Amino acid sequence: MFSETFIFYLILFICIFVIVGLLASRTIINSKLAVSDSKLSDMKFALDASSIVAFTDAKGIITYVNDKFVEVSKYEKDELMGQNHSILNSGIHSIEFFKELWKTIGQGQVWKGEICNKAKDGSLYWVDTTIIPFMNKKGKPYQYVAIRNDITDRKKTEEQLKDSLKDVRDITFALDQSSIVAITDAQGIITKVNDKFCEISGYDRSELIGQDHKLLNSNFHSKQYFKNLWKTIGTGEVWKGEIRNKAKDGSYYWVATTIVPFIADNGKPYQYLSIRNDITERKKTEDMLHRQDKLAAVGQLAAGVAHEIRNPLTSIKGYTEFLQLDETNEQRNELFDIILDEIERVNLIVEEFMLLAKPKVVKLEDKNIIPIIKNTISLLEFEARKKHIRLHFNANVDRVLISCDENSLKQVFLNFIKNAIEAMPNGGDLTVKVIVQDEHVQISFEDTGVGIPQDKLNKIGEPFFTTKEEGNGLGLMVSFKIIEHHNGQIFIESELGKGTTFNIQLPYRIA
Ligand code: ADP
Ligand code: MG
After folding, report:
1. Rounded distance, CA 209 to CA 194, Å?
2. pLDDT tens digit string along 230-256?
3. How far is Cα 283 from Cα 285, in angstroms, rounded to an integer?
4. What pLDDT shows up at residue 357?
5. Can you tell me the distance from the alpha carbon of 150 to that of 152, in angstroms, rounded to the nearest whole number?
6. Residue 176 vs residues 31, 260, 366, 421, 424: alpha-carbon distances, Å
């Protein structure tokens, strides 16, 4: 049997053990509590710093707000405490919206959403809101914690974005209604066309997408025209111009075209937007007017030629009749010379007129232009010297081949030299220069004569008949025509009383 003392000690020992154990576990719990306490306050601090926090009771009466809440709502703390949340109602949301909210949290579920509130000063602010219901033992919420974050800036950006998207949609709509629109990629492959594009071109959308714009080429414009176009938009600049296109059924249509390059971050265009408007009708009217203009010009020309021929014919007739009556006249030879001159003048006018009315189909041959020019100058050297005019010639090459009709070009050069001589009644200098440049050879006739008045300068190359002294304008007209036939151009610079320069530019084969 155990002695009573033993039992007593045993019980005492057990008691001490239990007490010590209890004490020990109590310290552990306490320290655990302390730890979780500090975690909680950390979290509260973090929440307070980051979010707008409010507590309400079961009826939605505010029982706590943090500093951020005060800051954002612009109310004082005691103005908020004891109030209903409807104090912040902005009127933006529907009654259903809040009904739904209360239904959710009333059932003990978390509600999340974006709410627009009204601050004390009337300004609106958006908050991203989470409301957490806290439940009592009966399963009923006894308080709600609302955690909100200010998203006013984000909302504003969203609104702006929406606005600008709407603008873009509106503009696109307006453009689609008014214009023929296409988008191509950097290589010129069509990636998008609008209905109007399909309509005017007569192609289905599927026939256009993936194609080159060449599909619509009507072969009206030169290669250079499209080269320039690509050069312009390729360097990121807007191109504007008029293009004649060919529809699927082979008919032609004209479009006033604007091509806008879209530039990537690397500075290179990644796509092109082309906006076109149908100008076929306008072009037709223009064509008609042009034809009428031409007809009027021809009529004017014919009238002028008739007039020009009548003058010398009248004098020829007069002199001839005079000579018929007076066979012994001492001036007989002189008068014959005049008659012959006048006949020659008529001849020239008729010849030039014929050439103009029906330009000869000439065979072009490669010819060195230098000796041709020198030769032409020498033809008029005698006449020039008589009129105290010095002729100069210089060239930066000895040889430059031009694909040409030699006689036609000679006629042009002769005309320019003759005109210059006539423009210097009191003598002067005529310099003929040949300069081979990158893309063409330039032949210039520079005189120190009377110059050409502006109104006349504008009409050069067209017939302008006035008096005999002023000439008939056929020479220059024919010259322009011939140079045009040789794919060249003529530019004129002139200053009254100082002189005139005619510049002919011609493409050359070999320099
Ligand atoms: P024409 O020689 O028969 O007068 P053109 O067509 O050759 O006809 O020239 C037309 C007119 O242009 C001339 O009459 C003259 O008035 C003017 N013109 C041409 N060349 C010159 C020049 N170098 N300087 C001044 N006027 C000129
Ligand atoms: Mg002339």
Report:
1. 11
2. 999 999 999 999 999 999 999 999 999
3. 5
4. 66
5. 6
6. 74, 16, 53, 62, 62
Domain 284-357 is found in CATH 3.30.930: no
CATH fold for the domain made of 52-159: Beta-Lactamase (3.30.450)
pLDDT of 21: 62
Order of all β-strands in the sheet with 52-57:
62-65, 52-57, 141-150, 124-135, 111-118
The third-level CATH classification (topology) of the domain covering 179-278 is Beta-Lactamase (3.30.450)
What number is the average pLDDT over the span 171-185? 92
Give CA separation, 245 vs 72, 124, 189, 259, in Å. Answer: 63, 56, 16, 15
CATH 3.30.565.10 fits 365-506, yes or no: yes
* Ligand 1 lined by 495 (C-beta under 6 Å): no
List Cβ neighbours of 212 (8 Å cut-off, separation of 6 or more): 188, 189, 190
- Most confident stretch, 22-31, 282-291, 501-510: 501-510
Nearest ligand for residue 305 CA: 1
Structural tokens at position 5: 């003392």
pLDDT at 352: 73
Residue 273, φ and ψ in degrees, nearest 5: -105, 125
Cα–ligand 1 centroid distance for 144 (angstroms): 102
Ligand found nearest the CA of 415: 2
**Which residues does 480 contact at the CB level (< 8 Å), separation at least 6?**
461, 490
Residue 478 Cβ < 6 Å to ligand 1 = no
CA of 27 to the centre of ligand 1 (A): 122
Does the pTM surpass 0.70? The reply is: no
Closest by CA position to 345, among listed 394, 310, 388: 310
Q: Which residue, 58, 66, 174, 42, is CA-closest to 105? A: 58
